[in-house]
Amino acid sequence: MKKLLLILSLCLILVPATFSQAMINIDSVTVEPPNPTATDPVYLHIYGWCGYGAALDGPPAVVNAGFTHTVNACYIVNVLAVITDIHDSVYLFTGPAGVHSVYYNIMQNSDQFTPVCDTQVTSGGETVNVMTTSINPNEQGQFSVSWNVDDHALAYNLPDKKSRTISVYSTNGQLISKTQTNGSSGKISLDATAGLYIVTLEDKNGIVLRKKIYCQ
Fold it and tell me: Helix (H, G, I), strand (E, B), or coil: what is residue 164?
């Protein structure tokens, strides 16, 4: 009986020490939706898990400074908590059009008896291209952008020779190519793997054409 009590006592002593090393595991941090328009709300999604229970210590702090957005999230890990899967959504902003920078910093407590975020889990950032919604449907028929399989290039036809910008994005929002047009028609070589891409055609007043193109 004395041996049993001794073993139980040692276990109780060792649990906090072991737990103090438990960290939450972040699988991914994403900004959604990809390629939002100026009227779409943009969110930061945090996915992960923890061997012990973990939960946000209140809503994450979001600091918006123009086109720069910073998220500070604090997770409290406790052996008595029951939620082990992490999927939290944080509202960031809605518009305006342009390239926004999103940064995040995720912290947790290092001791179950001290609910203070004093240990960094991960940090990072990404850019988000928010597209304008001011597309005149009556003008879209004057512009065309298509995929030319033979030349492995984007072919464009415009109503005049004014310079415009053609941008190509992956479906997760990454900018693949950005080129100025030269003349009322032409081709733009695109070194990209086969897949679905979002192409925008923009003049000085904003985007005049936005379409999805499958490149082979």
Answer: coil
Return d(Cα 123, Cα 71) in angstroms, integer.
Answer: 10
Distance CA 136, CA 65 (A): 30
The structure tokens 């793997």 sit at 193
Q: Tell me how crowded residue 135 is: count the other CB atoms within 10 A of its CB.
A: 17
Beta strands in 131-184 (DSSP E): 144-148, 153-157, 165-170, 175-180
Terminal C-alpha separation, the chain: 74
**From CA 92, how far away is CA 124, in angstroms rounded?**
15
The per-residue pLDDT for range 98-130, each reduced to its tens digit, is 889 999 999 999 888 888 999 999 999 998 888
Write the Ramachandran bin of 137: left for phi over 0, alpha for psi from -120 to 50, otherwise beta.
alpha
Nearest CA-CA partner of 166 in 211, 111, 108, 123: 211
Q: Which amino acid is at 169?
A: Y
Is the model's pLDDT at 16 over the cut of 60? no
Q: Which residues pair with 107 in a beta bridge?
A: 74, 120
> What's the 3-state SS for 106-126?
EEEEEECCEEEEEEEEEEEEE
CA 140, 164, 180, 155 dihedral sign is: positive
